[in-house]
Amino acid sequence: AEQLSAAAAALDKSLDALHRMDEHELPERIRTQLDRWGTLLDGRIDVDVRIEPPLPPFPPSAPPLAPTPAATTPDIDRAWRAEADSVFEADLYPSAESAAGALGRALSPVIQSALPPEHPTPATIEIGGQAIAQQADIGYALAGALRERFPQANVVVVASELPNERPNGDGDVRVIVGSTPGAGSTLRALALTSTGEHHRTVRYIEKPWLMRFDEYVSARPGQALFLARSALAHSREEASRQAVADAVRQITPMVVDHLAQHSTLAHRPDWREHLDPWLNDHLTNAVRQGYNVEDRFAQRLVFPTTGADQWREAILVSVKADNLASLQRIAETELQRFRAEARMREAVGRRTALGAVAASIGLVTLLTVVYLFLQAATRGYYRWMVRLAVFVLLIAGVAIMVIVA
Fold first, then answer.
1. CA neighbours closer than 13 Å in the CB half-sphere of residue 303
2. For residue 247, which of 267, 264, 225, 269 has the smallest C-alpha distance?
């Protein structure tokens, strides 16, 4: 805690010193990152600070790891807030709109650096092109990101093609957006200023269940759908394990309720105690192997200045009636097997206890007979030696019974 406090104080002083410098003395990339850090320090973004060693690589051939605890709900919610997208750059986005927002954030420092010193803020930003003519939401998302960076600029969205020409005004910017639909969808932006042109490209894949889960579920009232997500993780494998754990956490209550209402063994008072560990392992393995998984989305996030990356993953899980019926049969079989093994262990334990009692009685009887015989044979002259010998035999007999048991 003391080290973190000292580091925060040093960072605060450094930011103050840098902000006092003339803004043209700093590269645009550094100024943009300072704005992001300032947002963090002002408390508009919740920061989860953790000190932990880097995770070792996870080769595909590695043995299964111990179960990973599910990330807490606050960690998951924080990882998927819109503020995280403004801090990190992603390799892939779950919709054209989110990709357009990222495209606007990527163009902002380029536009700023291309403007002449006498026009530090663009007067007009005109956005149009083939992609926006086909999907106007792309233009609105791109305009929103640019308005956030240039609040004083007049940002105009034109739902049509724009001429591929540089604007005449020194403070004007024209952004032409094109797209490549399909499995490897991309958004391409050409930013034209009076001094030159600049290109930026982002990749996306449409995942409507992740972007608008409520609408997605409402359009499918007959399905039991669950959106499972991970927190920010140091590797894709760790993010996948967290997402699977979150899916199991959400599915388990539904499965338990179904078993409580329909299973013939659910009336037993101890059925949850026996079933819960097995059910957690069974559901975890099923989701990990892709059963009940309708779709998934993995995303790599990169911190622009350092290049450090984080991963997050989301899974769409569907639980159908036949899945519950099949799981019920398997669970009932598992409970029957567990109780049969418990009865067998109890029977073995009883037989072992009875055998130990019988062996103890036999040993005591045998040593008593030996003691009386030796006493009679020696006529009591070696009483203490005989007693010592019998005691040693008793200890040896007890040790042998313990070892055999």
1. 11
2. 225
